[in-house]
Amino acid sequence: MQTTDNDGVIDIPCPTPICICQDRQLYHEAICSGEYIPRMPARVTQITFMNGQIKVLSGITMANLTISSITMLNFSNNGIQKMEADALSHVTTIVQLDICNLEAD
Asked: SUPFAM superfamilies attached here (predicted)?
């Protein structure tokens, strides 16, 4: 269900059970685990994907983040094997990216 806040921003709820959004009033941070990257509430700016099944970062796998203002992404223990050249091409607000367990081709 979408909601509109006082600023007229259309928002969606935290994508549970895949993610837990911290600070429920502001939705500042989300901690997620799963096989895909879900669409996030507009106010989420930091996302940590822990122990998920995301193997490739590409424009397609990151597509749900293109409408968000994400500044920090952390992919811990996802077994990421590849990051394609277009992975961040439409996610232009990233200032910090942490990829643990990145394996070379």
From this structure: L domain-like (SSF52058)
